[in-house]
Amino acid sequence: MITLYPKPTFSNKSIINTPAFARRNNIKANEQMTPQQAKLEAARISSGGLTPRLWRILDLLAAGGVLSSHWLPPLANRTMREWCQVRLFERLSLDAAEIQAYFSEMGFDEQNPVLYTLGPVGIELATTRHDVAPPGGYQAYTPMRVMHDIAANEVVLRLADEISKKGWSVDWLGKYEGVLTDKSGKVTLLEPDALIRFHKDGYERAFLLEYHNEDKQSRAALKVEKYEKAFSEGNWREQWEVETFPPILVVFLKAIVGAGYQNATHSKKLNCAYYGKTLKAMLEGKLDDWKNVATDKKESILPG
User: Which residues contact residue 139 at a Cβ distance below 8 angstroms, ignoring those fewer than 6 apart?
Assistant: First the structure.
């Protein structure tokens, strides 16, 4: 879990070059790092101490898996390269033109995006710090699969920013931290894309996020079925630390997915609340009014 808001503050002194001790390895940049080597490097780097700014970058990538550099606290380009060289972070080696085409098609107003994920050393540090392995494998994913998580994370961070403006503290649990099991702890019931918890003056609320980038209805019915089952069989109060089952915010690239959720929920007795919105509307800043997909009515759901 990472606390997104209130944001930490960083002094200029925290933008520093990689300490000399962290560079003392014999592993070339293009060589595969073994798990044992990653553990040793993580121990060596952590023993010297990371700056608050670098911990923040690590925590953000541990929650989101992959992020565009514009969401990361700024670092000098040389410093970021050095931390990539010691395998703390990795810059995704995807075709820049293809990624730019996806950004433009999906409505992201960002030119020449640079995407980062955790390197093997960063994964070791994040696993120790958060007691759960972070999302990984992005270097092997297709651009479309990477963009699914980029879009989901964009929704999380924009919602968190909007909620924080009303004075709420906001926590982000990534998809592995938000996994829900049954009450025995043995069967996985849900893997939401994210869980956002927020609190203010003794009040606590939460949202679950599902992002869809496909162009068909079929997965919507399966998702509703899973959530309804999870309400009855899941250990959600203890695992998510909530008193009531969070509303599910469904964001979709194609409107046909929203129609699928409407068909799956209309005129049915439901345990969960489902709210839908297009990614386009999110990126246009329309964050508060959501359509209740079961009633087809707009509701204001963000906290005041």
Answer: 90, 92, 93, 117
SS3 string, the chain, reads CEEEECCCCCCHHHCCCCCHHHHCCCCCCCCCCCHHHHHHHHHHHHHHCCCHHHHHHHHHHHHHCEEEHHHCCCCCHHHHHHHHHCCCEEECCCCHHHHHHHHHHHCCCCCCCCEEEECHHHHHHHHHHHCCCCCCCHHHCCHHHHHHHHHHHHHHHHHHHHHHCCCCEEEEECCCCCCEEECCCCCEEECCCEEEEEEECCEEEEEEEEEECCCCCHHHHHHHHHHHHHHHHECHHHHHCCCCCCCEEEEECCHHHHHHHHHHHCCCCCCCCEEEEEHHHHHCCCCCEEEECCCCEEEECCCC
Which residue in this structure is represented by tokens 């060596």? 44
> How far apart are the C-alpha atoms of 304 and 12, rounded to whole Å?
34
CA distance 53 to 14: 6
- In the structure encoding, which two tokens stand for residue 177, read together? 């931290």
Backbone angles phi, psi at 95, to 5 degrees: -60, 120
pLDDT tens figures, 196-249: 999 999 999 999 999 999 999 999 999 999 999 999 999 999 999 999 999 999
In total, the chain counts a number of residues equal to: 304
Task: Write out pLDDT tens, residues 153-186.
Answer: 999 999 999 999 999 999 999 889 999 999 999 9
Six-digit token string for 244: 């009531």
- Among residues 91, 194, 95, 90, the alpha carbon closest in space to that of 148 is found at 194
Question: What is the dihedral angle through the alpha carbons of 243, 245, 251, 254, rounded to the nearest 10 degrees?
Answer: 180
87 vs 80: CA distance, rounded Å: 11
Provide the pLDDT confidence category of residue 47 given band limits of 50, 70 and 90.
confident
